[in-house]
Design a protein that fits this description.
It is built from two helices and ten strands. It is of the alpha+beta class and 142 residues long. The chain is globular and about 80 Å long.
Length: 142
């Protein structure tokens, strides 16, 4: 009887442990490297989006790099829930917090995850989106 109780106890503890692990939110870290010819004025601004409805309207996270002080041009986002995301990056040379436009389009460099491009405007969420399940490193070219 003692052996049966011990086996039952081990199985029960294992099941509780597996359930607890399954209930924990899986998280991943994302490293985003920015490539391209980037002047040493202003800042790089990264906006992270988690849904098509929020794309280019309501970012879930915004990060900045002062390019005059950091020539690494690499963003680190920690603790992301497993899921689908998209990123927009601008080189905000004049630090006004937005992508400046001229007669022929943007006057500052920009890019999207997957190096997606739009025909006559920004890339779509579906073109820029990617799935994060484990720690990831992506590169965006400006």
């Amino acid at each position: 009887m003692t052996r049966l109780t011990l086996v039952f106890l081990i199985v029960f503890i294992s099941m509780v442990s597996l359930k607890a692990q399954g209930d924990e939110q899986m998280v991943a870290n994302l490293t985003v490297k920015i490539e391209g010819s980037i002047a040493s004025a202003g800042k790089l601004q990264l906006a992270l989006y988690s849904s098509e409805n929020d794309w280019l309207k309501n970012e879930m996270k915004t990060l900045y790099i002062d390019v005059a002080q950091d020539d690494n041009h690499t963003f680190h986002i920690e603790g992301l829930s497993v899921g689908t995301y998209a990123i927009a990056v601008i080189h905000d040379k004049n630090n006004n917090g937005e992508l400046d436009m001229g007669m022929m389009g943007p006057t500052e460099k920009y890019g999207f995850s997957n190096n997606a491009r739009g025909m006559f405007g920004p890339a779509t969420y579906s073109d820029a989106s990617f799935y994060v399940e484990y720690d990831e490193v992506i590169t965006i070219k400006l």
